Amino acid sequence: MGLLEAFFYIIPGIFVVGGVLGLYRTLKRSSQISRTWRHGRTAEARCLRSYTRTSGGGGDTSVTTTLHHVYEFTTAEGRVVRFDEASGRSTVVEGDFVTVYYLPEHPEGATSRPPAQGRLAVGTGCSVAFFVVFIGFALAFIVGAHFAFSAADGFAP
Length: 157
Prior knowledge:
By secondary structure, the chain is α+β, with helices and mostly antiparallel strands. It has two helices and five strands; from the N terminus they run H-E-E-E-E-E-H. Strand 2 (63-74) and strand 3 form a beta hairpin.
């Protein structure tokens, strides 16, 4: 196997690994939020800070801005917990009080998103579909490259 052939296996292989990791993280976070809504507790949290984080914008790429909120609440056991949540509601500003949902065994994974199992299922389903197609294309590329290199073995010296 030459360097060029290895390149056609390694790069798509990295894409497959990245897709599997993205799929895992998506399913894990979705499961955590769903469990929090179904079996968790609620508490009143105060928004300590809100800020935006931008990414992209290099060259001809678009800029993406994500709104973050930092919340602080006290668990039923008396523990003070502070957490940062991305993609929050734009109507929540510093000093506002919101209801948060948390699991007693993992209060750092709290969320201020109101329960919406249907919306969560649709969002998770779309993300899973994207990652499955992404992984499928990378695997198809690897298989196609394998057949192409196998067929070319008889032609080139």
